[in-house]
Amino acid sequence: MLRRASAVGKVGARVGATLTLGNEFEGKTMQQAVSPVLAVDGLCKTYGDHSAVEQVSCTVGRNEIVGLLGPNGAGKTTIISMVLGVLEPTAGSIRIEGIPLAEDRAGALACTNFAAVYAPLPGNLTVYQNLRIFGMLYGVSDLQERIDALLAQYELARFHDTKCGVLSSGEQTRVSLAKAMLNSPRLLLLDEPTASLDPSAADDIRHRIRDFASRGTCGVLWTSHNMYEVEAVCDRVLFLSRGRILLEGNPKTLPREHGKPNLEELFITLTREPLALGRGKA
Ligand SMILES: Nc1ncnc2c1ncn2[C@@H]1O[C@H](COP(=O)(O)OP(=O)(O)O)[C@@H](O)[C@H]1O
Ligand SMILES: [Mg+2]
């Protein structure tokens, strides 16, 4: 059976049920453990008469990597920009760690960070200078220790005094991830983090993200056009087309559920004939 946008509602219902459980126990730890890191409800963004994002509702759970898939122009970056608070939604709500972004922007964004190729770090600053400046902007305590730990974790110590602009794409992505980790985010947004990387560098980044998501209580929202990568990394995917969620599910089982041999074929069909597939199987 095709799991269309209605399936997202079911996910929301499940989350609602677990939230009720949390309220019953009145324990903050329990509440935090069961509530989603990110909850988006009825999100819309219109430009004139063009709907870039239309009634998108979704969640990102703890230790979960959710893939946001869809052709160019589907609305992925618009959604990420709204979650980051850099773009005002036309309608809908965004909660990060239960904090409504519209009401407590600083509180919601304090536990969020992101990395994207279109937002490179200033190239004329060294790796250390970039981490120091962003760490100060985020108000990170024990900043020097945090930077030292991240330089070691992301194998960047030898680039301490190297300007970011001269680093390779893979190295720059590692610096962007280190920067994104400075404030120990619980929600990590990644917009095509491996787009310009060679297979080995991309594999390294995937392992780092999986490692990040498996620890603590963090969640990741990730966009990629590499379906091999999506299948390997994501616990759940959302297919977007023209600003709407068409499908949602496990990337390993979704293709078979819709009679497709793999995720790439499903992606191509959904991109070329979104309405035909939706009507035929709904
Ligand atoms: N500032 C803007 N003004 C008008 N249309 C925009 C603007 N920003 C994005 N769009 C449109 O919104 C749609 C979604 O864009 P985007 O979120 O960048 O897609 P994706 O990241 O999935 O490739 C596209 O049709 C794009 O042209
Ligand atoms: Mg985009």
Key features of this structure:
alpha/beta; binds magnesium ion; globular; six-stranded mixed sheet; binds adenosine-5'-diphosphate; four-stranded antiparallel sheet; 282 residues; 2 domains; disordered N terminus; 12 helices; Rossmann fold; 10 strands
What does this structure look like?
The protein is α/β, with parallel strands linked by helices. It has two domains: 5-111 and 195-281, P-loop containing nucleotide triphosphate hydrolases (Rossmann fold); 116-184, no CATH class. Helices cover 43% and strands 22% of the residues. It has twelve helices and ten strands. The protein has helices spanning 5-25, 28-34, 76-83, 105-109, 127-138, 143-153, 169-181, 199-214, 227-233, 254-257, 263-272, 274-281; strands spanning 38-47, 50-60, 64-69, 91-96, 99-100, 112-116, 187-191, 219-223, 236-241, 244-249. It has a six-stranded mixed β-sheet with strand order 6-7-8-3-9-10, with helices on both faces. Strands 2-1-4-5 form a four-stranded antiparallel β-sheet, with helices on both faces. Strand 9 and strand 10 (244-249) form a beta hairpin. Helix 6 runs antiparallel to helix 7 (169-181). The protein is globular and about 55 Å long. The termini are close together. The relative contact order is 0.16. The structure holds adenosine-5'-diphosphate (ADP) and magnesium ion (MG). Residues 76-77 line the site of magnesium ion.
